[in-house]
Design brief:
With 432 residues, this protein is of the alpha/beta class. Among the domains are: 137 residues, ATPase, nucleotide binding domain (Nucleotidyltransferase, domain 5, 2-Layer Sandwich); 103 residues, Nucleotidyltransferase, domain 5 (2-Layer Sandwich). It contains 17 helices and 18 strands. Strands 9, 10, 11, 12, 15, 16, 17 and 18 form an eight-stranded mixed beta sheet that branches. The longest helix has 22 residues. The structure holds adenosine-5'-triphosphate (ATP) and magnesium ion. Adenosine-5'-triphosphate binds next to α7 and α9.
């Protein structure tokens, strides 16, 4: 192995900027990245807290750190910034960019001290992943803030850097050259046909994800008399993961759940003294999973018409993100725009990734509940009966980590002398 490959075997560093979580870490940490919530607490005025905790920074990030501050000064909650919406940071949102810089720095602070002890270390090859819809200014801003961080770390932090679209990273992690990636994170669903590179004109994006499953969980908790607990994001998240189910068919699942109340009863222990019990409303647990796949059922309409649930189309740049379009129609639409000769190959290699596809299926409910791959297969077969048996869909092994893993593989494989090209948006970018 050449010296350069030896170097990259140690010093590739990947970053996946998600709406919910930032995943980061070097190639040497193994299969799983580190992960923190993508959010930061802005400390706007200098107060006694700065003195007491000896803080110089004006942004606090990290899953351990933020709660300490919120616990001590609840009024700080209003200064908690989630920098991304649907995978996008607004160009002029200075607070958001501060937080993006702070989470990025947080990652390097963990790994740079050890790397820098190696006299041969001349900086990481950094591979960052952004939404396939990220506008060019996000690339520019991300390069710029890495350049600034490099100078904070003795100009020895970064050797070169590149940015790739998240679905491409998934395809690379799965070693799939021609495939259709469906990436479903907290903020958005990206449906991206790939044939060596994303087929941009065929990308279909949906303006929903795990966040909408949280939103319906919150409303269900309120309806069931747990309004107080529904205010706590931690509780909502826990309830969603524990009782949320994806129905094979929503109507039939609800009917069965209403007939066999005990079998479908949804209970969650929050702490030793608090238990949530949905009782006769336990059929609602199917709404939590269904909303990701298809929110256009009458069961969701009352929430939407009352303004308790907002799912709407938005436009980012020249791309429309659909609110309520069902996932099968979106996949079919994406494939329809692709060249005829690859369409059937795309149906044969549909790859699902992202945390919002991680639904569990309790063994005693298998007759009505299913996993994400089965769900999408059922939905496509219903729309295109002639495709029954000809569609192949798989969920990647660790849905929240595959983007990061793909970045690592990409960084290891892309030759160091392949320079960044602004028209193709690929190659190594360097300011040295
Ligand atoms: N076991 C689970 N059951 C249901 N949902 C889950 C589970 N584990 C994680 N999630 C959801 O996955 C989402 C986070 O996934 P992921 O990290 O892929 O998103 P992200 O990268 O932060 O967002 P995006 O890619 O949309 O910008 C959250 O909505 C979280 O609640
Ligand atoms: Mg993501």
């Amino acid at each position: 192995m050449g010296a350069e490959l030896q170097y990259r075997k140690k010093y590739v560093y990947a970053e996946d900027y998600g709406t919910g979580y930032f995943k980061y870490g070097p190639i040497t940490i193994g299969e799983n990245p580190r992960m923190i919530q993508n959010r930061g607490l802005l400390i706007r005025e200098k107060t006694a807290i700065h003195e007491i905790f000896k803080i110089e920074r004006d942004v606090i990030v990290g899953d351990e750190e933020i709660p300490k501050f919120l616990g001590s000064r609840e009024d700080l909650v209003k200064n908690l910034v989630y920098p991304m919406r649907d995978g996008i940071v607004k160009i002029d949102d200075e607070d958001a960019w501060k937080v993006i810089k702070a989470v990025t720095r947080y990652g390097f602070e963990e790994f740079y001290p050890v790397a820098s002890r190696d006299p041969n270390f001349k900086g990481y090859y950094v591979v960052a992943a952004l939404s396939a819809l990220a506008p060019k200014y996000m690339y520019e801003k991300l390069f710029e803030l890495h350049k600034e961080l490099d100078s904070e770390f003795d100009n020895r932090l970064i050797k070169a850097m590149t940015i790739i679209p998240q679905p491409l990273a998934v395809a690379i992690a799965e070693k799939a050259l021609t495939c259709l990636v469906v990436e479903c994170g907290h903020g958005n669903i990206q449906i991206c046909p790939i044939s060596y590179y994303p087929i941009r004109k065929a990308i279909v994006a949906l303006n929903r994800g795990g966040a909408e499953a949280n939103a319906i969980t919150r409303e269900i908790l309120k309806d069931c008399g747990y309004g107080d607990l529904a205010r706590e994001e931690y509780v909502v998240e826990k309830v969603k993961r524990e009782i949320g189910l994806v129905p094979k068919n929503l109507k039939e699942a609800i009917k069965k759940a209403k007939e066999e109340k005990e079998r479908f009863r949804a209970k969650v222990k929050i702490d030793p003294v608090t238990e949530i019990d949905l009782g006769d409303n336990s059929w609602m647990r199917f709404l939590i999973g269904e909303i990701v796949f298809n929110p256009s059922h009458e069961e969701f309409m009352s929430y939407i018409s009352q303004g308790r649930l907002v799912i709407e189309d938005i436009v980012i740049g020249d791309q429309k993100l659909y609110g309520t379009l069902d996932l099968a129609s979106a996949i079919i639409e994406a494939i329809r725009v692709c060249p005829v000769e690859i369409r059937s190959r795309l149906f044969e290699r549909i790859i699902l990734s992202g945390g919002a596809f991680m639904w569990s299926v309790p063994p005693n409910l298998r007759d009505v509940a299913c996993d994400s791959a089965t769900k999408i297969e059922l939905m496509i077969s219903e729309k295109l009966p002639e495709m029954r048996g000809k569609v192949s869909i798989s969920l990647v092994k660790d849905p929240q980590y595959s983007v990061w893993r793909g970045c690592i593989v990409y960084g290891f494989a892309l030759p160091g002398d392949y320079k960044w090209d602004w028209s193709r948006l690929e190659g190594w970018y360097s300011w040295k």
